[in-house]
């Protein structure tokens, strides 16, 4: 749409041209017009760029080259170069790749290309070039590159077993690199049978059939037996316990896998062969059963953990044993289990807090030790940081803002090439690439510049980047950036009519979508409040929204109306418990109802949240409640208690039963 000023200029220009044409003795040729309007040309270039990206993703080198040739001056030229080269990475010369890295040195896409090349060099066992490039990989956030890095060092004769044990804890993500590392260490004698058996157990625990197969072969067993133990445990159990140590371990993997579907059959199988297993093997078997029982909050879980004494527990097993001990109120066991965790896991704020609570439950000098642990994390504005703060006698409050940002401070952000590339990606709805470019630039910024970048994100309507960027500061704060409340003119009347806590609603929205209005999840949840189609239809019917169709979920007003009403429904079904209602919003009322049914009496809200079986929902509930506490402090302008918000979760209840 033209502005009135431009429209007047256009009329005046046209009048002058007409007068000149009437007085001229020869006709004046019309001014040449572009073949394609600038906006249309830009859209066409962006469409080609998206086709180029897809060709690269499909390893279509010819297609990528063709599209790239038609984009000589695209706004994101570095990615045109990347997508042209990426499908040819296996055949490209080292000099060509180095030229790309040199030309785009210091950029996010250069580091991405170095990541890709390191994987290729590792696959080819080209350790000379790998060792040259690896120290230049800035992010170093790829587990397979890390595995190749350890493998290269092992090939040179270095002992890397300790580093490998710390790294190799997630078999589903191993790929070729980490599988090759394990084989290399086994052949070099750096990994012994105990290491390989630990990998076999871990693969079984995490349902990683391929790694289980490979570990079994390295141990001298058949990969078929290992695969059966993971995928068809009933068949493996029917075959029997076997005679060798490896046979026993494969049998115990099958016991743990069977416990995921039938604890009763797993217990029968374990007890049937108890006399043929060593005490430690038997304890390992009980640990597998205990883990499965814990993840369903079975009342038998604690008894199984008692029988697992002497087993070498995995990190997941240690965490679940701690959670079940919390539910039991057995603080002595909570302390012992957390203290048995590896140092890196024990230092996590979750276990720092609960170890402090366990120490505080004791008498004497333990109180001072507990306070030291709380103080260690009390400055972290997170779920456990807030709880630790309350243990030190303070409540959550909003820090005073620093001096206001000036236009001169924000201007360099608008001129930053990386941030401009990020904006372009966001305009193309390529959030992954946009976020990568944005975060890459943040590494270089001071605290003051981070606040300026966050404000630049706000000005461009990219609130998720504003929140993420502002959260990185440690000495200067702007909580209007960290905890924004957009669309309040729409949300406030709905929330007020329903009698909902506005801080809780904003806390949930912040976790659900980070204020991305058109957010869409992999399972179909849409909009600001991430409403599922079936949920939207159910709520619309309940509130009398007769003209509802699924497409309305992306409408801001409708999304807030349906999401807020659904929050009100789950809160009523949870008898007013925000932790339980938040769990229901994320995982569904049926699952939340099942978790509640496991309670024998009132449970501290923090313990309930920590022992939610689904990792996603567990994290979600903690984040929503921590967010809500911050919002309440911001809205009410006074300190707030997360503990009070968590309250206690009670069994049963007469709330409405949602589907």
Short note summarizing the structure:
The chain is mainly α. Helix content is 66%, strand content 1%.
Q: Which topology of the domain at 488-649 does CATH recognise? A: Lysozyme
Number of helices: 39
What can be said about the biggest beta sheet?
2 strands, antiparallel
Span between termini: 48 Å
Under the CATH scheme, which class of the domain at 488-649? Mainly Alpha
Helix content: 55-70%
Mean pLDDT: 93
Number of strands: 2
Q: Quote the beta fraction.
A: under 5%
Low-confidence stretches: 1-36
Shape: globular
Question: What can you see in these coordinates?
Answer:
The structure is a single chain. By secondary structure, this protein is mainly alpha-helical. Among the domains are: 407-476; 488-649, Lysozyme. 66% of the residues lie in helices and 1% in strands. The protein has a two-stranded antiparallel ribbon with strand order 1-2. Helix 12 (209-218) runs antiparallel to helix 13 (223-231). The longest helix has 22 residues, at 615-636. It is globular and about 80 Å long.
């Amino acid at each position: 749409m033209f502005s009135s000023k431009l429209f007047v200029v256009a009329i005046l220009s046209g009048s002058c041209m007409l007068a000149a044409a009437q007085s001229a003795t020869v006709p004046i040729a019309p001014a040449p017009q572009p073949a394609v309007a600038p906006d249309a040309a830009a859209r066409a270039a962006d469409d080609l760029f998206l086709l180029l990206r897809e060709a690269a993703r499909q390893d279509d080198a010819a297609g990528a080259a063709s599209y790239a040739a038609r984009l000589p001056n695209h706004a994101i030229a570095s990615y045109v170069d990347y997508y042209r080269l990426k499908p040819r990475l296996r055949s490209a010369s080292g000099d060509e790749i180095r030229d790309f890295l040199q030309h785009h040195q210091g950029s996010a896409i250069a580091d991405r290309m170095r990541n890709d090349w390191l994987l290729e060099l590792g696959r080819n066992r080209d350790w000379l070039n790998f060792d040259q490039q690896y120290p230049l990989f800035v992010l170093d956030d790829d587990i397979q590159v890390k595995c190749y890095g350890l493998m290269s060092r092992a090939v040179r004769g270095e002992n890397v077993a300790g580093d490998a044990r710390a790294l190799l804890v997630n078999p589903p993500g191993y790929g070729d690199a980490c599988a090759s590392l394990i084989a290399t260490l086994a052949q070099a004698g750096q990994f012994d049978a105990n290491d390989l058996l630990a990998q076999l157990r871990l693969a079984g625990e995490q349902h990683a059939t391929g790694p289980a197969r490979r570990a079994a072969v390295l141990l001298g067993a058949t990969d078929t037996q290992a695969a059966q133990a993971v995928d068809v445990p009933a068949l493996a159990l029917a075959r029997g316990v076997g005679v060798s140590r490896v046979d026993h371990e494969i049998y115990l993997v099958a016991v743990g896998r069977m416990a995921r579907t039938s604890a009763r059959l797993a217990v029968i199988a374990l007890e049937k062969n108890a006399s043929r297993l060593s005490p430690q093997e038997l304890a390992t078997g009980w640990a597998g059963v205990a883990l499965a029982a814990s993840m369903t909050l079975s009342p038998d879980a604690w008894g199984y953990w008692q029988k697992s004494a002497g087993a070498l527990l995995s990190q997941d097993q240690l965490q679940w044993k701690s959670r079940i001990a919390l539910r039991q109120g057995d603080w002595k066991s909570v302390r012992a289990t957390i203290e048995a965790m590896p140092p890196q896991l024990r230092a996590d704020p979750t276990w720092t807090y609960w170890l402090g609570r366990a120490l505080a439950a004791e008498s004497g000098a333990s109180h001072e030790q507990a306070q030291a642990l709380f103080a260690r994390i009390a400055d972290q504005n997170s779920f456990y940081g807030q709880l630790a703060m309350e243990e030190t006698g303070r409540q959550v409050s909003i820090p005073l803002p620093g001096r206001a940002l000036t236009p001169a401070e924000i201007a360099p952000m608008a001129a930053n090439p990386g941030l401009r590339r990020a904006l372009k990606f966001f305009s193309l709805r390529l959030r992954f690439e946009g976020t990568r470019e944005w975060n890459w630039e943040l590494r270089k910024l001071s605290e003051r510049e981070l606040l300026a970048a966050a404000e630049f994100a706000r000005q461009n309507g990219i609130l998720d980047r504003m929140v993420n960027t502002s959260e990185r500061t440690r000495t200067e704060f702007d909580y209007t950036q960290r905890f924004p409340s957009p669309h309040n003119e729409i949300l406030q009347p709905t929330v007020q009519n329903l009698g909902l806590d506005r801080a809780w609603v904003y806390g949930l929205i912040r976790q659900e979508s980070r204020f991305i209005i058109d957010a869409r999840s992999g399972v179909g949840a849409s909009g600001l409040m991430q409403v599922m189609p079936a949920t939207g239809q159910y709520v619309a019917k309940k509130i009398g929204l007769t003209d509802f169709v699924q497409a309305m979920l992306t409408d801001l007003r409708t999304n807030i109306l349906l999401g807020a009403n659904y929050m009100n429904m789950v809160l009523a079904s949870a008898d007013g418990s925000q932790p339980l209602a938040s769990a229901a919003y994320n995982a569904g009322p049926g699952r939340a109802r099942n978790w509640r049914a496991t309670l024998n009496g009132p449970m501290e809200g923090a313990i309930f949240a920590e022992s939610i079986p689904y990792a996603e929902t567990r994290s979600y509930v903690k984040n929503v409640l921590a967010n809500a506490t911050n919002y309440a402090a911001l809205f009410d302008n006074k300190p707030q208690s997360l503990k009070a918000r968590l309250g206690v979760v009670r069994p049963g209840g007469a709330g409405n039963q949602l589907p």
